[in-house]
Amino acid sequence: MEKRKFIPISLIIFAFSAFAIYRLCSSAENNNETDLNISHPEITQPVQAAEPNKQNQKEVPKKKEYVIKDYKGNIAVFESDEKKPFRITDIEVKNLPEIDRKELKNGIVAKNDEQLHALLEDYLS
């Protein structure tokens, strides 16, 4: 008998709680709405852009260029005008066709990372 009374009371409490939560949420939304009648202070003087200060201006970094060359018998990657490679591959130049060996002797320029990866991938295949 106790169980039968418990179920309707639980439903009433649940319904009341759900309604209370709904009212709390809707009143919180109403409090967050901005009042469109608020007056904003007017700007009386025109705003002028500050003169650029050459000392504070940073130079735009130059995009990295890479040079792929033969280095001690292997394909190596150099950053633009550097003397030492930052990456030496396992690809031996002697195993490549003559035309590729000539190009690598002079150096092949890659304008960006994507070109560099594409060129190295070509030599790997």
Description:
By secondary structure, the chain is an alpha+beta fold. The chain has a domain at 66-124. Helices cover 42% and strands 17% of the residues. The chain contains 3 helices and 4 strands. It has a 4-stranded antiparallel sheet. It is elongated.
Name the descriptors.
42% helix, 4-stranded antiparallel β-sheet, alpha+beta, single chain, 125 residues, 3 helices
Major β-sheet strand ordering: 3-2-1-4
Q: Which radius of gyration do the C-alpha atoms yield?
A: 36 Å
Low-confidence stretches: none
Please tell me the overall pLDDT. 75
Shape: elongated
- Which H/E pattern describes the elements? HEEEHEH
Distance between the termini: 82 Å
Strand content: 15-25%
Tally of DSSP β-strands: 4
Q: Into which percent range does the helicity of residues fall?
A: 40-55%
Helix-strand makeup class:
alpha+beta
Largest sheet: 4 strands, antiparallel
Number of helices: 3
Brief digest:
This protein is an alpha+beta fold and 125 residues long. It contains 3 helices and 4 strands, in the order H-E-E-E-H-E-H.
Lay out the secondary structure.
Elements: H1 2-32, E1 66-71, E2 74-79, E3 87-92, H2 98-106, E4 108-110, H3 113-124
Antiparallel strand pairs: 1-2, 1-4, 2-3
